[in-house]
Write a structure and sequence with these properties.
The protein starts with a helix and ends with a helix. The strands form two sheets. The protein has a two-stranded antiparallel ribbon. The chain is elongated, with a radius of gyration of 48 Å. Among the domains are: 107 residues, no CATH class; 150 residues, no CATH class; 104 residues, no CATH class. The chain contains 33 helices and four strands. The chain is mainly α.
């Protein structure tokens, strides 16, 4: 049993008696002395061990044993039950060593680091010029460390054995380390310290720094910018589209020959090709599934007609008094022309009975026997309405027929329909459900000419349209927008034009239903157009001036050849020219690495990769801060730190402690 084990056993016995209130005054003094612990905390003690060749516990323990009476009090308690005499110094040394031993068991890696840190000052004493000198230093350091870490006191057998093992391990370890130092150092330099690798590494870090700065300049934090891109996943929106500052980064990449430009251009060109498809999706989300213009009209007509036909069937049977007001309408030139059109429609449909009355120039209606009528079936007025639609909404305006004439006919049509609707409410419901072919087609045509309309006039016309006509108008507006996208050389032009003009925005708003729901749908549609327009601005980088690209390429070529044709005149001149050439090439390599890293980040759309990118760009841990702001320090400091920990003195000190642990006496005690 080691002395430390005896101290632990005594402590536990006294604690048990104290819990049972059976501990006398002297026992309490001993327990208090045992619980006083070591002078140095475990971590500080380990550092001191490394700095004193594993002698700190000996030094501190000897001093404490000489001045602290409590150590003798503990020794007196231990000696009667110990196989050998125990002194105050033995107790003090054991108490100094105990916390360090516990820390080594619980944290072996950290303990090794503290001891190595303590031995670092010896690294500044100078390295030997030969392998033999270094091995001798390491062996001496290992012998001292092993001797001091061994059990016992004076020239005990355990200490001598530990010292001998430390001597051999220290010298042998340094020989092995010397064999590894050069190849490991060369490999490290090849990986981290060549001009090309350093330029690439610095370029990547510069790219990350630039991206963070430009994102913040656009008014976002890195987290907000990446969250926005992730939110728009599937819409090809990237960090390059965040704002004008990140767009400028893409512009810069586009004029810099290299892999970064290739990455950016491939992505932007592919995205450009997909614009019409994305805009088609935006239109579908806003207006419904896209379909052919005329087919939409036919489908609309069929859907409305099925429900309306039942109401028309009932409404057409109802008779309406033929009043003087209606007669005045019938004698107008437009109604006279509408009668002729109605006759053609009825004849072409094979419905000769629909128009069974004759309209006279003075507005009278006569039956087949020539007698004036006082009441007429709604069926007759409905076919008249179809003829009037053709007059009011001609496919082509007749020569000489001005706008006022057309509007006068349409006003007459409105009066006629108001009269019939008031006289026959069933007909009014049927007509509201399904407007006639001409009116629907006219509404759809107005939708197709949406962006050419006068805003106030169109708003007034929409207010007088029924549900069928409004739906037809929206289908026409959809077709108009799709046509704009299809025929435009750059399909985002229309989106930008709409956003620039309040008038066009107001007209486009009329294509959506009234109320909060319609406004919400329009806002979403407009946001989508805005996003596509922003993306189109980013894509202008793909069309950057070839002159600018050629200038950048020529600049790089000059950097590579500036000194190749100018022969040096002296050794000094040779060194200067070589340094200049290497500096210019390294600058180009760094710029290309910066552009390549920027391109990768600016075109990334995968949410998982974006989350990792956010962590890289926003991390505030020490290593990330050092990597971003002091990259050269890490690359150059690592070999320096390694040399401090692997110099002969430091290495020998650690090998001595390992030797102490391998001694037969120490192994026996551990068992």
């Amino acid at each position: 049993m080691t002395l430390n084990d005896q101290i632990i056993e005594l402590t536990e016995k006294l604690q048990a008696k104290n819990r049972d209130n059976k501990l006398n005054a002297e026992g309490k003094r001993v327990l208090s002395a045992l619980q006083s612990g070591s002078i140095a905390p475990a971590q500080l003690g380990l550092v001191l061990q490394g700095a004193t060749f594993s002698s700190a516990d000996e030094i501190l323990g000897s001093l404490r044993g000489a001045v602290d009476p409590n150590m003798q009090l503990i020794a007196d308690q231990l000696s009667p039950n110990s196989p050998q005499s125990v002194s105050a110094g033995d107790v003090a040394r054991a108490m100094e060593r105990a916390p360090m031993d516990r820390y080594r068991e619980e944290n072996p890696v950290a303990a090794f680091g503290y001891e190595m840190a303590g031995s670092v000052p010896f690294g500044f004493l100078g390295a030997g010029k030969t392998l033999a000198a270094n091995a001798a230093r390491a062996g001496a350091s290992g012998a001292i460390s092993g001797y001091m870490a061994g059990e016992g006191s004076g020239l005990s057998a355990d200490r001598l054995t530990s010292g001998a093992l430390g001597l051999g391990l220290g010298a042998g370890g340094d020989v092995a380390m010397s064999a590894l130092r050069r190849p490991v150092g060369n490999a490290y330099d090849a990986i981290f310290r060549t001009s090309e690798s350093q330029a690439a590494s610095r370029g990547r870090r510069e790219a990350e720094r630039m991206l963070v700065e430009q994102i913040k300049a656009d008014g976002y934090s890195v987290e907000e910018a990446i969250a926005l891109v992730a939110q728009l996943a599937g819409k090809d929106f990237t960090l390059a589209d965040i704002g004008p500052n990140t767009q400028q980064l893409m512009d810069a990449i586009a004029v810099m020959p290299g892999p970064g430009k290739a990455t950016a251009m491939r992505y932007l060109e592919a995205r450009q090709k997909g614009r019409n498809g994305r805009l088609g999706t935006i239109l579908q989300e806003a207006f419904g599934q896209r379909a052919n213009y005329f087919n939409d009209f036919q489908a609309l007509k069929a859907a409305r007609g099925k429900s309306a036909d039942k109401l028309y069937g009932s409404a057409n049977k109802i008779e309406i008094p033929y009043s003087s007001e209606l007669r005045e309408l019938m004698r107008t030139p437009a109604m006279q022309e509408a009668y002729a059109r109605a006759a053609q429609i009825a004849g072409n449909r094979g419905d000769g009975t629909a128009l069974n009355l004759r309209l006279m120039p003075d507005g009278r209606l006569l039956d087949r026997k020539g007698n004036p009528v006082s009441a007429i079936q709604t069926r007759f007025l409905d076919i008249m309405k179809k003829g009037l639609d053709d007059v009011a909404f001609p496919r082509q305006v007749q020569p000489g027929l001005g706008t006022e004439s057309v509007m006068a006919v349409r006003d007459l049509r409105t009066k006629f329909l108001d009269y019939v609707d008031n006289a026959n409410s069933t007909y009014a419901r049927a007509r509201a459900l399904y407007a006639g072919d001409s009116a629907v087609m006219e509404a759809m045509e107005r939708g197709r000419g949406l962006l050419r309309e006068d805003t106030d006039e169109l708003a007034d016309a929409l207010s007088r349209m029924n549900a069928s006509e409004k739906e037809a108008f929206r289908l026409g507006a959809l077709q108009n927008l799709q046509d704009q996208f299809d025929i435009s050389v750059e399909s985002a032009n229309m989106a930008r034009d709409v956003m620039k003009s309040k008038r066009k925005r107001d007209l486009l708003r009329l294509a959506f239903p009234e109320g909060e729901k319609g406004q919400a749908d329009f806002d979403i549609f407009f946001d989508n157009l805005t996003r596509e327009s922003t993306m189109a601005v980013t894509e202008r980088a793909a069309a950057n001036s070839m002159t600018a690209q050629r200038s950048e390429l020529i600049k790089q070529m000059r950097n590579r050849s500036a000194t190749s044709l100018d022969l040096p005149s002296s050794l000094t001149d040779l060194l200067v020219k070589n340094a200049k050439q290497n500096g210019a090439v390294a600058e180009d390599q760094m710029l290309q690495a910066t552009a390549a890293r920027l391109a990768d980040m600016l075109v990334e759309t995968d949410p998982g990769t974006l989350r990792r990118l956010a962590k890289d760009l926003e991390s505030d841990d020490l290593m990330t801060v050092l990597r971003r702001h002091a990259p050269d320090l890490l690359v150059d400091a690592a070999p320096f730190v390694a040399s401090l920990f692997t110099n002969p003195q430091s290495l020998g000190s650690q090998m001595g402690r390992v030797g102490a642990g391998l001694s037969p006496e120490q192994q026996a005690l551990m068992q």
